[in-house]
Write a structure and sequence with these properties.
alpha+beta, 3 strands, single chain, three-stranded antiparallel β-sheet, 21% strand
Length: 73
């Protein structure tokens, strides 16, 4: 799995999950349970991971949705 996005914004994560689901791209949200460790402060980013074979399509989807600036470098 390759990191597509790293963010603290739960709305962006939810939106990306919906976009990936609509495109039949399996994604994994890593570090979701880190809020237990950090005390629910939201300072540790969550990562959206996709299969390497889906990476180019996933990036195009985010670009078309106008959120390409969220892509991991």
């Amino acid at each position: 799995m390759i990191e597509l996005v790293r963010t603290n914004d739960p709305v962006i994560i939810s939106y990306i999950e919906a976009l990936m689901r609509d495109a039949d791209i399996v994604c994994l949200i890593a570090d979701q349970n880190m809020s237990i460790v950090e005390g629910s402060l939201g300072i540790l980013p969550r990562r959206v991971l996709v299969d390497e074979s889906d990476l180019a399509q996933a990036k195009r989807i985010l670009h078309d949705a106008g959120i390409a600036d969220e892509l991991s470098k």
